[in-house]
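User: These chains co-purify. Model them together.
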Amino acid sequence: MRSIFRPPASWRHRSFRYRMMVWRCVDCGAVHNYRARRCRRCRSGRIGEDQLPQRGRLLFYTMVRTMFEGYEHHSPSPAGIIEFEDGTRILALLTDCEPEELREGMVVERVFRKIAEDGDSGVIVYGFKFRPLLTQGK
Amino acid sequence: MRRVYAVGASMIRIDEYWGESLDSLASQLVDGLFSLAPPKIDAVFVANAFGEVLQSQSNLGAIIAEDLGLAGVAAYRVEAGEASGAAALHAAYQSIGAGLADTVLVVGVEKLSDASPEEATAALSLSERYDYVGYQGIPQQAIASMMYAQYLRRYEVPQEMVAQIPVLMHEHAANSPHAQYRFKISLESVLSSPPVAEPLRRLECAGLGDGAAALLLCSSDALSSIRHDEVAELAGMACSTDVVTPFDREDPLRLGAASRAFEEALARAGTDRKELKVLEIHDSYSIIGCLILESIGLSEPGKSGLDVKRGKYGLGGELALNTFGGLKARGHPCGATGVYQAAELFLQLTGRAGNCQVDDARVGAMINLAGLASCGFAAVMKVRGV
Amino acid sequence: MPKLKDVFIQGYGAYIPSLRIKASEIGRVWGVGDSELPVKEKAVNNYDEDTATMAVESAKYALARAGIDRGRIGAVYVGSESHPYAVKPTGTIVAEALGVSNMTLAADLEFACKAGTEAIQIVSGLVSSGMIELGLAIGSDTAQGRPRDALEYTAAAGAAAFVIGGKRNDPVAEIEASRSYVSDTPDFWRRSYERYPVHGHRFTAAPAYFHHITSSVKTILGEGYSLSDFTYVVFHQPNTKFPFAAAKMLGIPPEKVEPGVVCHVVGNTYAGSALLGLCKVLDRAKPQDKILVASYGSGAGSDALVINVLEGIEGKRGLAPTVEDLVGRRRYIDYALYLRARNKIRLQ
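Assistant: Joint model of the three components:
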């Protein structure tokens, strides 16, 4: 199938994809990366917006070698599970690194990147990726 | 609820059928099923996952019913990702159990050879959340590989242990007439196969092929009116779901959907896991095979690979696992896979499993998953009267 | 022209992508010897970076230094000759990614290599007039050079952003004055629907770059400045030679120019070029230093800015990576990987 990026789909998810705005349960703290109206953990209906931090720890990583049609320019690409201070885990692509630089537990930071393009004429899809810290110790 | 019986099964070998379409693949099942006089069928449940995306075809209930010569019969297409087959079986089980139908045909059909490797990867990844994972271009296998990494780290086992699963699957498939890959492979060849997403390697992933399988189910009332040679009872079936993305769960290595469905199916069947002689599981990736065995309590956490190595799950072992080769070697025609598993259980319990036959197979079970265990189905089948 | 009133730089941020290609590697492919190379190496945006993403990264650093509430940003101006869309603003992508208020002015500017200083001028005007409290001025480019053309050695990727506002928050610097000089000079252009720009070779020098830069500098000096007032002078840097040659024409000692030169190791980052030079100078400047910036954009024009460094620089400098940090983070690629990163390999 063709990777068709429907503009409304990118648009309605932009706060999560651009800034990692999430929906956090006011009662139990569970984080949803979709517009949850009821907490998936405690069923509470009290959900508020929150932003995940800029930095987290790389729990696990892998090299994605078969990506979808439309992502050929990105393949192969490292991907990982990033865990934040509050325990929230996010699945994300990694960038600006060679696989041998990656270590489980290393601190990574969020950057804004191009995720995919719908050919030469369709929309450009933007979103978060993570990279090793640009300057260590800063 | 009423008792539900399986009275016939039919499968084609999983392969690349360049000359066949979804409907013509399914129509090949007729001979195997209705060699006897065709019974009166109340409903057809068609399991298929990717008809829309790979064949531009929906409405497969009506289309497959017509191709089977059953136009006029109530027909439904059932989709639950890679668990579509078990979902269709579950729907049939419920409709017979509830007394709404007496004779139901479950058909699973999928054609993956129409897909390029990228399309097949994308199709499998449709079970994961697209707006979160899919849009990033991250395929399902990458998530499975990180569950794998977590597993190796937590239990401090070498990859050679997890990679025992595909070796066993090929051993079982070598004698399996309908398996896609009827040959043995060595542990070395698994570990040296190209990485798909480290640590996951090519030969640890299920074979994707074209397939079609069917199972004929009926109620006890209909049993007397159907001419049949063999019967097994679909004694219990259940479904459970989980948080979709594994790393959003409390413990990504515990497949709760599989264990809950399994427990409930055993309870409904009034049996115990100790009674099981045959088990067909959803080894979409070697690691998922291990996690199922450990989540349902058949192997200790971190020990399933060792159990495989020690022969626990061989055809002559304590519990025969994936007796025709499982998803890895029998093949994984996604939406049809659950129907293959059920048909294989039926062959085992009716003593017609040929070279794959397990001695004294009187109770068997299957587990079919969608995605990375976001949805799980389990079924228990028994020899009649057990 | 009166001097600007109460216009301050609250924060500045640079961004340079991590990939580098050596000019000698490009020369290897086309048989050009090292002695003819205009720069040492240039920064290359990766496949997942474009003008919008680099603008966002530089603006994040500028905001980190400014330490202001993003909701108070009232304008986002992005200057570039490589906006990702021909029609659809970069500014809205940048504003959304940064999480600034929706009630903001946003516009894209294009004036070859001087669209970044224009953004500063426009935001300065808005602040000075009281139309906005704070604004973002960004220059960002992923410049394209036709393979084998002289520009292929220099056309680079980079961005710089400035948070500009009134005198609050311990500003980094004051923008004291600004003058421009433009004329219709076709030294470099890219027609609609064309992939690569065309340039006039030596015509880009005397009547274009040098005439406009020296004219804008002379114009601003006419406001009552003398060259000796300035600790640093930053020029647009299409190659390593031009800024020093312009300085020589104006009688500026090379020591005042050298600290703001980045193009030898980054290349020509077009709308980001003079601004990256300014960031580099701010990374080392002391309070009371005076900086003269003169950009150049083909077509043609030059914007001159007079900037006074203030006490705030000391506390804010360390809040984001310096230009040196960004120059130091680099990974060399060969020409094949360069073609891949720049999406020059046909896959369909």
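Chain B touches chain A at residues 53-54, 116-119, 121-123, 125, 129, 131-139, 141-143, 145-146, 149-150, 153, 195-200, 243, 245, 247-248 (CB under 8 Å).
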